Amino acid sequence: MGIKGLMKLLADNAPSGMKEQKFESYFGRKIAIDASMSIYQFLIVVGRSGTEMLTNEAGETTSHLVGMFSRTIRLLEAGIKPVYVFDGKPPDLKKQELAKRYSRREDATDDLAKATEAGNKEDIEKFSKRTVKVTPQHNDDCKKLLRLMGVPAVEAPSEAEAQCAALCKAEKAYFPLPSHALGIIIDKYQMRKSSYTCQVYAVASEDMDSLTFGAPKFLRHLMDPSSKKIPVMEFDISKVLEELELDMDQFIDLCILCGCDYCDSIRGIGPQTALKLVRQHGSMESILENINKERYQIPDEWPYKEARRLFKEPLVVTDDEQAELKWAAPDEEGLINFLVKENGFNIDRVTKAIEKIKTAKNKSSQGRLESFFKPVSTSAPVKRKETAQTTEKGAANKKSKAGGGKKKK
Amino acid sequence: MLELRLVQGSLLKKVLESVKDLVNDANFDCSATGFSLQAMDSSHVALVALLLRSEGFEHYRCDRNISMGMNLGNMAKMLKCAGNDDIITIKADDGSDTVTFMFESPTQDKIADFEMKLMDIDSEHLGIPEAEYHAIVRMPSAEFCRICKDLSSIGDTVVISVTKEGVKFSTRGDIGTANIVCRQNTTVDKPEEATVIEMNEPVSLTFALRYLNSFTKASPLSNTVTISLSSELPVVVEYKIAEMGYVRFYLAPKIEEDEEETKP
């Protein structure tokens, strides 16, 4: 899943590229969400006790619907405009990784059977979580739910993260958008009315490879339940690159070395070593030439070039193929039919939730200042303690790791 | 080395009272020309820009440009300790992580020093282009304050529209609707009681009253308020500070979405 150890590597080496943000601060923003990842999380977490899951009368799981419904409403209430992106056909290179996941699931199923026999509650829960799989049925249910809620869903031709990143990259195109801008088409009327409604601000996922796919802004923990009170972690790729002193191509090589979904990593090279090597040699080719082959065994078949291409030029929908993103009013009747009649939701809860969606729609019309004024400088203009800060670099790093506040005590 | 001596200390007290509810933490930027601040509220809907020019201070010394991050709530707490007639001096040493507020009573028989810890604040500085506004309304600040307060008891948002007839504030809520029209009126005894409307083009914009109400906390700073509007731009609500500068509030409008978008 994602890039191994990248999170820690960035926390240690590029702390200024990540910022803790309040959930509320994203109101009015369009955010592309990796749907498959979220559904997976819902299936694991929502309404589970042991092997028991939330089901409808027919015995089909509804955890994903409960999760999708309540989390999406939470986003809408905060004034966020979510776009869900669903996985398409996995790239060939990922087959190996998928096969591994499949076999792990098989193992877990066996373990679960054993644990159930032994009646060990903790183990039952642990292993049953590992057997979770997102089926096409789950995806279709969620798409239907989203459509009824008036929230746009996009089907990625391949990896959802790549498509999310592509939607978000379109944000870079300054308004008015050139016609070749990625992802979104806007009609002229809408463009004139509200310049800001056409930009996807960030990608929300838990998979770090969103960054590798080039999402300019990447959010973690956005979809975590509010009860956990985890602040959203925002990554800014341009700051990350600046602080790592790498360009995007080198960053992709770094991620491949750390270990991605598309090819094995080299034994003995972890994130730290990978960063050192990329900094020292500049590119994968040069690393492979100069590396000590005795110490590090490069796998015989190591398709790093293909993996690199997948990250750089992933299969995504662009331009005209992409339908306009629209946030519409919820279809009340449809929601009640689908959730209450077909899936056994409580009717009172659903009607209340629909009310929430409607009120939330009003809130999302508030504009943000950044849509009108562009930032000129992002950091504090003049540091008070320039000299002191350079000498205390270690201490400064620690401070910023602790969080965005950085209060001087 | 920074040393700014402000004889009319109550000004600074009023400035802080007007912005502290909108912004929690902000960087004060000091340069040879003046003492300024630009900060957004946490939801990035409103922005406050403050300028106190160096000429307005009795003594102004700023050797090099510095930026001091302060918690405005804490700063307001300290300034509350100053008397209304007190002379306030802001002092900071180079490389220090504190700032000192010194309060002197007018008779010089009491001197108080308050030292406050500074903070490191990451803040985005927005570039605000000089724009020609479609309509500029100048009116008594107390009047504007009253209108915002009254309307917020009826609804959450206000539509401000400027036409040849005057400026209209309207709202709608669960209990009903309200419309207040202010006509141009320059035949008053005192110039600050006038309502002056300069209009190039009629405009109509919608804003959240919550923020406007917060802006009117600056009313004690000035008898008049200037409201500048352009369609598709944030409104500017400006309170001039006599002979020193201004407090300007910017508020992003609410944008009604396309009719067809709201249909399923």
UniProtKB/TrEMBL annotation, chain A:
Write the Enzyme Commission number(s) for this entry.
Answer: 3.1.-.-
Report residue spans for region: Disordered.
363-409
Q: Does the keyword DNA damage apply?
A: yes
Q: Where in the cell is it found?
A: Nucleus, Nucleolus; Nucleus, Nucleoplasm; Mitochondrion
How many and how are cofactors bound here? Binds 2 magnesium ions per subunit. They probably participate in the reaction catalyzed by the enzyme. May bind an additional third magnesium ion after substrate binding.
Protein's name according to its UniProt entry: Flap endonuclease 1
The chain positions of domain XPG N-terminal read: 1-108
Listed cofactors: Mg(2+)
On subunit structure and binding partners, the annotation says: Interacts with PCNA1 and PCNA2. Three molecules of FEN1 bind to one PCNA trimer with each molecule binding to one PCNA monomer. PCNA stimulates the nuclease activity without altering cleavage specificity.
What keywords are annotated for this sequence in UniProt?
Answer: DNA damage, DNA repair, DNA replication, Endonuclease, Exonuclease, Hydrolase, Magnesium, Metal-binding, Mitochondrion, Nuclease, Nucleus, Phosphoprotein
User: Which family is this sequence assigned to?
Assistant: Belongs to the XPG/RAD2 endonuclease family. FEN1 subfamily.
Which residue spans traverse the membrane?
A: none
Q: Does the keyword Transmembrane helix apply?
A: no
Compositional bias (Basic residues): 396-409
State the GO CC annotations: mitochondrion; nucleolus; nucleoplasm
TrEMBL record, chain B:
**What GO molecular function annotations does the UniProt record carry, in alphabetical order?**
DNA binding; DNA polymerase processivity factor activity
Q: Can you give the residue ranges of the Proliferating cell nuclear antigen PCNA C-terminal domain?
A: 127-254
Q: Where in the cell is it found?
A: Nucleus
- Provide a GO biological process annotation: leading strand elongation
| Function description | This protein is an auxiliary protein of DNA polymerase delta and is involved in the control of eukaryotic DNA replication by increasing the polymerase's processivity during elongation of the leading strand. This protein is an auxiliary protein of DNA polymerase delta and is involved in the control of eukaryotic DNA replication by increasing the polymerase's processibility during elongation of the leading strand.
Q: Which HAMAP family match?
A: DNApol_clamp_arch (MF_00317)
Record-given protein name = DNA sliding clamp PCNA
Q: Which organism is it from?
A: Anisodus acutangulus
- Lineage of the source organism? Eukaryota, Viridiplantae, Streptophyta, Embryophyta, Tracheophyta
